[in-house]
Amino acid sequence: MFITFEGIDGSGKTTQIVKLSERLIAQNYDVLSLREPGGNAISEKIRETLLDAGNDIAPRAELLLFVAARAQLVEKVIRPALLAGKLVICDRFIDSSVAYQGFGRGIPMNEVQECNKIATGNLVPDITFFLDLPPSVAAGRAAGRSDEKTDRMESSGESFFERARHGYLKIADNEPKRFIRLEARENPEIIHEKIWTYVSDLIKKRN
Ligand code: TYD
């Protein structure tokens, strides 16, 4: 089973991924938790290039780098893990490219979708949790993490994140079965219980 998390920076994905994977591991599921871009040596190198605030990257080069990192992760890590029966959880996947490079940077959607298809060989998550938060609130949360430097994507400005959020909301409208919108301002425990209900239902259906 393949589960992904989406949301603009500062939406609380990490907290929810940790809670979900700990609960699954406690129930003896074989869980592999990954992040995009990253999750293997090559994709981590691409990540460094993408997030380095000193790099001036053209929008289409940015898209191609994100999907190159994705292609490597899918081929070398995700598909083998799914074939081995693992439950794979990924922090961001195809929908990040749609929201950020498509809606955020303005790259035509057919180009983004085609790049995603090439990178994934049509692998689509079984379920995706979208933690929704207005960018102004998310920016405040991110600023609270004073130990981290602002990366290249984070310095894209609030209107960029507004467009990305709008993109996520569009995906939620288009794919209501797979792409689940959750209110990220709710208590993290309540959010976790909602996620757990969806995941355990899905597991039951699979068995
Ligand atoms: P990261 O530090 O992992 O952000 P977060 O903790 O919010 O997930 O950095 C990843 C950044 O890259 C984030 O700003 C989202 C962006 N991104 C894209 O623009 N397109 C993509 O396809 C992916 C996977 C990420």
Structural account:
The chain has 8 helices and 5 strands. The chain has 207 residues and is of the alpha/beta class. The protein has a 5-stranded parallel β-sheet, sandwiched between helices. The relative contact order is 0.20. The site of thymidine-5'-diphosphate has 13 residues, from helix 4.
Please summarize what this structure is.
The chain has eight helices and five strands, in the order E-H-E-H-H-E-H-H-E-H-H-E-H. By secondary structure, the protein is an alpha/beta fold.
Distance between the termini: 11 Å
* Rg estimate, integer Å: 16 Å
Bound molecules: thymidine-5'-diphosphate
- Beta strand count: 5
Low-confidence stretches: none
Tell me what portion of residues adopts beta-strand conformation: 5-15%
Query: How does the overall form come out from the CA principal axes?
Result: globular
Oligomer: single chain
Proportion of residues in helical segments: 55-70%
Structural class assignment: alpha/beta
Number of helices: 8
The secondary-structure element order is EHEHHEHHEHHEH
Largest sheet: 5 strands, parallel
Overall pLDDT score: 95
Question: Order of strands across the widest beta sheet?
Answer: 2-3-1-4-5
Topology:
Blueprint: E1 2-6, H1 13-26, E2 31-35, H2 41-51, H3 59-83, E3 87-91, H4 94-104, H5 109-120, E4 127-132, H6 135-144, H7 158-174, E5 179-183, H8 188-206
Helix pairs in contact: 1-8, 2-3, 3-5, 4-5, 4-7
The structure holds thymidine-5'-diphosphate.
Thymidine-5'-diphosphate is lined by residues 9, 35-37, 51, 66, 91-92, 96-97, 100-101, 153.
